[in-house]
Structures are given as structure tokens and as C-alpha cells.
Amino acid sequence: MPKEILDAPSGPAPVGPYSVAVEANGFVFISGQGPLDPTTNQLIVGGVEAETEQVMKNIGAILADVGLGFGDVVKTTIFLADMDDFPLVNAVYGKYVGDAKPARSTVEVARLPLDINVEIEVIAAR
User: Going by CATH, does the domain composed of 4-125 fall within 3.40.50.720?
Assistant: First the structure.
């Protein structure tokens, strides 16, 4: 099955040459989302909890745009600028995924685009 670039107008516009959501073989791949307000494309400030909240809202909006929800997510990858923020990010993340816990990886990175503190990408299944 060829890949299909999906329309996801409720999420932030891409900040580079990539697609927000791509479907292939029944899986939907959502590019890493940062804490951008989708209506203004401005960064949300206020610490890693506020950033994570916006990231999860963005992911939820993109999932809804393509007819899916958090219960359809099978894998997430969380990128953190500081692993010490893990408990705060984990608490916010947990509110969104609930009992439908996908497989997950979390890694600390040297730096994230736009100097954000957290970025999360997801893979969902139809």
C-alpha cells in the first residue's frame, strides 16, 4: 500500500519540510509535536508541564483530524531536553493515554528544535 499524506489542519503547521501525518499499511505516523499553539504558531511557555499539555492537545487534535484517538496509538516516542523532567511529563502524558497505554520510548536529547523541552511523536493503527 502506498503512503498517503493526511490532512491535519487542527495541529500546528510544520516548521520544516515534513508532513504532519502519513498513513501506510494501516498505520498513521504523526511527526514529533512540540508545544506550538496551532492557531498562532507561537510557542507555549510556562515550563515543561505546560509544554507537555500543549503537545498532547496537538496530538489529540491531529488524531481527531484523521479519525483516530489516543486509544488507537500503539507507540510513542518522547524526546526530552532534560530527563529530570520525566516525572512531570509522564504525569501529563498519562492523563491523555489513560488505560490505553501504548508502547513507549523516552530519550534525553542534547537539544530540540526551537529550544523546546519536550517533543512527542506517535504511531497509531486503524
Answer: no
For the chain, the structural domain boundaries read: 4-125
Closest by Cα among 118, 119, 10, 4 to 60: 10
Concatenate the DSSP letters of all residues of 27-93 into one string: EEEEEEE-SB-TTT-PBP-S-HHHHHHHHHHHHHHHHHHTT--GGGEEEEEEEES-GGGHHHHHHHH
What is the bridge-based pairing of β-strands 21-24 and 4-6?
antiparallel
Per-residue pLDDT of 45-80, as tens digits, reads 899 999 999 999 999 999 999 999 999 999 999 999
